[in-house]
Design goal:
By secondary structure, the chain is α/β, with parallel strands linked by helices. It is built from nine helices and ten strands. The strands form two sheets. It has a five-stranded mixed beta sheet with strand order 3-2-1-9-10, with no helix packed on it. A hairpin with a 2-residue loop joins β4 (103-108) and β5 (111-116). The longest helix is centred in the N-terminal third of the chain and has 16 residues, at 73-88. The protein starts with a strand and ends in a 16-residue tail after the last helix. The protein binds fe (ii) ion.
């Protein structure tokens, strides 16, 4: 059985549709929405193609219309993209997000799987690095062969005490310096992390044609093109740009400078 693992699509339908990997089962590991320009299209794709799906922190936030405050980094981008994301979804699509389970245990091909967006300890928000010492206590006693996660947008696999942890990386918003869409495949005992080119400029055009905050548009374009959280945006939507657009963003949002800075993996995954 060939199992396709997808995570962190984030409204980037061009990236999602570029994945043409032959498979028997498709598992979706959370974060269909926010950031990207086509959340509804991504929900429809997953509803049609994924056999099992779980809820990410962004799916939860959009389903519940959680208001995000943030002047920095990915939280700033979430704050900018959450309202248009919620507005773009029909009631059926929001219900789909709200009904996704936060974790799921399955047996496939004789192997036991736990699907969870972040970690078994904190299914939607904990940031899990590729560190066996971090994972060991979180895997202790779990009656599974595989734990499949997303959230960090950093692909990795590791095996700890007989359990294989797989993070396939992000389909739609890479953060590891490689702008190609990231996904994973489990085939028998083989696990593979894969990348594929997609029409990045199509996604950038859609973002640029939207009504998003201009700073958010430029941040997203940079991330799509570079596959990373680029240095000039390192601190927040204003860092490195305080003399350009940053003060404007802070002023519009009426938030004092320096209140929040954010780095990738701070929970805004
Ligand atoms: Fe994510």
């Amino acid at each position: 059985m060939r199992i396709l693992l997808l995570a962190d699509v984030h409204g980037n339908r061009a990236a999602l549709e570029a994945i043409r990997e032959p498979h028997d089962i498709c598992l979706f590991l959370g974060d269909l929405v926010d950031y990207g320009p086509d959340p509804g299209g991504c929900i429809n794709w997953v509803k049609q193609h994924a056999h099992h799906s779980i809820r990410g922190n962004h799916d939860h936030g959009a389903a519940q219309n959680v208001d995000v405050q943030g002047v920095g980094g990915f939280r700033f981008l979430t704050a900018c993209t959450r309202p248009p994301t919620v507005a773009a979804l029909n009631p059926c699509q929001r219900r789909f997000l709200a009904d996704l389970p936060t974790s799921l245990m399955l047996t496939l091909d004789g192997k036991r799987f736990l699907l969870v967006h972040a970690t078994p300890r904190d299914p939607m928000d904990e940031y899990a690095p590729a560190d066996p010492a971090f994972w060991a206590p979180r895997l202790a006693g779990l009656p599974v062969d595989y734990v499949c996660v997303g959230h960090t947008h950093q692909p990795y696999t590791l095996t700890v005490n007989g359990i294989t942890v797989i993070n396939p990386g992000s389909v739609g918003l890479s953060r590891d310096g490689n702008p190609r869409a990231s996904y994973g495949v489990i085939d028998g005992n083989q696990t593979e992390l894969k990348r594929i080119e997609y029409p990045v400029e199509q996604t950038v055009r859609e973002v640029m044609a939207s009504n998003l905050d201009p700073t958010a548009k430029q941040m997203l374009a940079d991330i799509y093109r570079g596959g990373a959280y680029l240095g000039r945006w390192l601190k927040n939507g204003t860092a490195g740009l305080k003399s350009v657009a940053g003060e404007e963003v802070l002023a519009r949002r009426n938030v004092p400078a320096g209140v929040e800075s954010i780095t990738p993996g701070d929970g805004a995954g």
